Amino acid sequence: MQLGGRAPAAVRPILPVLQSGNTHLARRPFIAKSRPEHAKHGSSISNTRKRDCRAVQTEIEITTEEVLDINADPLEALRTDTPFDWGKQWYAVAVSKYIDNSKPYPVQVLGKRLVLWVDGTGAWRCFEDRCPHRAAPLSEGKVLLDKNTIQCSYHGWQFGTQGDCVRVPQAASEDAERVACSSPKACARVYPVAEAQGMLFIWGESGPEAEAESAAKPLPVCKLLQGATGEQREPRCTVQTSRANPQCRQVKLF
After folding, report:
1. CB-based burial of residue 103 (10 Å sphere; 0-12 exposed, 13-18 middle, 19+ buried)?
2. Which residues contact 177 (CB under 8 A, 6 or more apart)?
């Protein structure tokens, strides 16, 4: 075999090549370094850690009341013969401890403008945020705790806890005021409201059947926050503000 000729592929990487009188050594063949002793047996250290993790996982007790089946269809519980009615549901709208009880608090549910307020007994009330007189927002009015009413800021009409009109300052006489207050058109629209676990819930519909329908449907509360006797535990709440956008706030319940 000649030195200047092309060597076979099997021995080419380790033979010197003569070019213009200079000798260049070819690349040295790759030699694998000896592996550590624990690596020769399938990474016994990592396997030991995995066994330890599995041992820890088996000691954890499941304290939740319900265990979800990962193989079950998540939509199976939602499939019923009756169509889903968005209006006949409870909706969480606010954290009660962050609301100023001395004045009305406006909210929106399903595109409806509503107003929350607390009467003289400390009970929450929810009305449509619209005065039946001139459609002024009731949320811009004020709460009269001594009279147990909410007052419109436009003409001063006052409404009781059941939405009934109890005061019309523009009436010419007491008889005229009594007639005006007795009209069904002078009543505010009332929505069922409930408080549980520090949250305020509003029923999606109003009307004569709303109270009975809302009472028959349980509130969508967290079961893990319920005590053994059924009492509701108030969760802790934190409010975080984004540095990039101070107007963006995130409320976390735990």
Report:
1. middle
2. 167, 168, 171
Tell me the Ramachandran region of residue 20: left when phi exceeds 0, alpha when psi lies from -120 to 50, beta otherwise. Answer: left
| CB 163, CB 188: distance < 8 Å | yes
The model's pLDDT over 36-92, given as tens digits with 9 standing for 90+, comes to 555 555 555 555 555 554 444 444 444 444 445 556 666 665 666 678 889 999 999
- Which domains are delineated in the chain? 90-239 (2.102.10.10)
- Cβ neighbours of residue 85 under 8 Å, at least 6 residues apart? none
Tokens found for residue 83: 């169509």
CB 233 within 8 A of CB 226: yes
- Give the single-character DSSP code of 230: S
What's this model's pTM, rounded to 2 decimal places?
Answer: 0.60
Which of left, alpha, beta for 70 (phi over 0: left; psi -120 to 50: alpha)? Answer: alpha
Tell me if 106 sits within 8 A of 129, measured CB to CB.
yes
What is the C-alpha separation between 84 and 186, in angstroms, rounded? 33
pLDDT digits over 191-237, tens only?
Answer: 999 999 889 999 999 988 999 999 999 898 877 666 544 555 555 55
pLDDT above 90 (res 27): no
- Count each helix (H run) and each strand (E run) in the chain, helices first: 3, 14
- Are 186 and 158 in contact by the 8 Å Cβ rule? The answer is no
- Residue-wise pLDDT tens digits, 130-189: 999 999 999 999 999 989 999 999 999 999 999 999 999 999 999 999 999 999 999 999
Report the distance separating Cα 233 and Cα 224, nearest Å: 9
